[in-house]
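Example for tutorial group B:
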């Protein structure tokens, strides 16, 4: 099974992702015995609950320095110092210093909701492939509503995949008034390309939260957070019904890989050219939270 490659917006190069537990991922999604384990332990949430418990134990903090060193994580951005984390999860969903993720442009610029590898499409109903040829989004299942699927079918969609080495708080892509979130789905399979190349449907069967954001400029933007293996918690920290500025924190994921998706109504956004180009090439684009995702369509 080939490794995971993506395009880095900042270096201008194609790079290979460092995947914690990569051999395990290749076994679980690439062999018959691994798929059996997936059904028994992972899909039923046993593995995620156990892993979440372990990552919340004080003793888990001892693994933070080696994790930071192995994956080259920049701790200069962190509000807390290395020795201040209560456990590994406290480090995993750490907050960053003010200004660590500056916002691109003005209010007519939509920003990426998370540090992630992103893919974007101008129309959700005309996607040719997602990770491999032939895979398309099942919008009614993904959004949990035929009505919402019809609303966003002809609009743009951006998929932002966070890997375990990323900063794991997610933020609003545009300014607006968010409604209450709706909980959807159930199991917790991986959202790594190792998994999604074989079965994109994990995105609409995994545990996820859906929020609609009302904006005078952007219309109604749908934001979907998708849990994954090891993510036993999607915590929303915003207040429903209260105006939230673009870039403001919306919530965080506990340990594991995860995904955020943003859906726009037709004619509301022009996605960034490099995002569209790399997606067309079958590559994800790495960019940090707050960087330009697109601009308001004129």
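The residue assignment follows.
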């Amino acid at each position: 099974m080939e490794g995971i490659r993506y395009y880095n917006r900042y270096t201008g190069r194609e790079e290979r992702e460092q995947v914690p537990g990569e051999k395990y991922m290749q076994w679980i999604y690439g062999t018959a015995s691994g798929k059996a384990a997936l059904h028994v332990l992972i899909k039923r949430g046993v593995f995620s609950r156990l892993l979440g418990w372990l990552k919340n134990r004080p003793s888990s903090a001892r693994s933070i320095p080696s994790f930071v060193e192995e994956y080259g994580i920049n701790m200069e951005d962190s509000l807390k110092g290395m020795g201040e984390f209560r456990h590994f999860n406290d480090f995993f969903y750490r907050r960053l210093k003010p200004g660590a993720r500056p916002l691109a442009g003005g209010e007519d610029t939509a920003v990426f909701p998370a540090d992630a590898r992103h893919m974007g499409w101008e129309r959700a109903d005309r996607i040719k492939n997602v990770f491999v040829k032939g895979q398309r989004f099942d919008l009614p299942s993904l959004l949990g509503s035929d009505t919402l699927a019809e609303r966003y079918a002809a609009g743009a969609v951006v998929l932002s995949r966070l890997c375990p080495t990323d900063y794991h708080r997610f933020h609003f892509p545009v300014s607006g008034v968010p409604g209450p979130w709706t909980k959807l789905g159930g199991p917790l399979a991986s959202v790594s390309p190792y998994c999604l190349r074989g079965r994109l449907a994990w995105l609409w069967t995994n545990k996820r939260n859906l929020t609609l954001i009302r904006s005078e400029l952007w219309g109604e933007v749908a934001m979907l957070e998708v849990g994954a293996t090891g993510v036993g918690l999607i915590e929303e920290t915003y207040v429903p019904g209260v105006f939230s500025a673009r870039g403001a924190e919306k919530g965080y994921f506990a340990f594991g890989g995860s995904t955020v998706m943003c859906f726009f109504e037709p004619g509301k956004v022009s996605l960034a050219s490099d995002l569209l180009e790399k997606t067309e090439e079958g590559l994800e684009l790495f960019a940090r939270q707050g960087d330009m995702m697109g601009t308001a369509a004129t």
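Residues 20-29, 189-194, 196-201 have pLDDT under 50 and may be disordered. Compare this with the pattern of hydrophobic and polar residues in the output above.
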